[in-house]
Amino acid sequence: MKRARGKYPYVRPNTVKGRIYWKFEKDGFRCNLPGPWGFAEFVAAYEAALNHAKAPRASTAIEGTLSWLIEQYLGSLRFQNLSDSRKRTIRHELDWLREQAGRYHFARLEVRHVEKLMTKKAGPTAANTVKKNMSMLCNFASKKLGYKGPNPAKFAEKLKTNPDGYHTWNEEEVERFLDRHGPGTKARLVILLALNTGMARQDLARVGRQHVKAGRIAYRRGKTSVAADLPILPELAVELEAALANWSDGQMLFITQDKRPVGYTPESLGNWFRDRCAEANVPGALHGLRKAGATRLADAGATEWEIASYLAHKDTKTAAIYVKKANRARLADSGFAKLTQGFVSNLSEALDRKAGKADANQ
Predict the structure, then answer these.
(1) Distance CA 181, CA 277 (A)
(2) How far apart (Å, rounded) are the C-alpha atoms in residues 133 and 15?
């Protein structure tokens, strides 16, 4: 296969006795990559090597099994075009599917089998993710592998979930957190960064001085690669200045661990922040702050595209939800205001003083 220039950085050819092998080398980690350039086995080994992991063994999956289908998907251009964070999530979810049902032929799976897999997950969201991934794999097989059979996941029952998703912080909860974690604390810096920039936890874990210029903070969202360019509001600027005094020489990251000046993984940052929430006796997580920031903008009358720019979204689909909620509240207020114009008292005589006086004069 012809190599695409720059497609797989850190890989070079290594010729041994006239045969070409692929050598991966990055940050002191070295390994050989199996298979032809760009094929599924090669891609799987390359992605493992990026995380300093050993190359996976050669595939032993029987053609037609769910394990085989998953390997075909992981080696496809569709998977390769996903963001790095999305790749990690999907791979983790598909590894679970492969462990649970990888030995079965996917063409023989029925609705009841998909629903049985769903019951193995705790919580409706995780169960629905199983349904979603199974449907995605069947669609992939149909479009790319010539599969002509049905998609059993399409007809599996979807479990009811909380329509609002993550808890959205309210203003009282934000104030309670800020009261508990005073000026100059890392917890206060994190909440103000999240609230004023709309960053997800993976973006918060890597944001630093390199993203700040001329009173603005610009970054590219890890999940979608959409760029955001936002002003640094005064309350956030104060905390950044306070944090600067405690940073070590050459430190770039805004948020580092307590014991050493290195960053968090997105998961560990989320766990650390949940502990700070417990200390302040507030429910919620980092993602709820992102929703709170969008709610603030909507309540202030921001347009859908203004909110989408804050969220670093490609479209206004999600932003429209926040605008709709804010408009509904404003319309309710204006509607009730009309009812109070020219209001005619209809209270009982015991409560309506004017009615009582009129009766006395008759």
Answers:
(1) 10
(2) 40
Number of continuous H segments (helices) and E segments (strands) in the chain? 15, 6
Q: Does domain 171-335 have CATH number 1.10.443.10?
A: yes
Q: Residue 124: count other Cβ atoms within 10 Å of its Cβ.
A: 14
Please tell me the class of the 11-155 domain. mainly alpha
Q: What count of other Cβ atoms lies within 10 Å of the Cβ of residue 351? A: 9
DSSP one-letter string for 309-330? HHHT-SSSHHHHHHHHHHHHHH
- In the chain, residues under CATH classification 1.10.443.10 are 171-335
CA distance 199 to 217: 11
**CB 49 within 8 Å of CB 60:** no
Q: What is the pTM of this model?
A: 0.63
| Residues 260-278: tens digit of each pLDDT | 888 898 889 999 999 999 9
Residue range(s) occupied by CATH 1.10.150.130 in the chain: 11-155
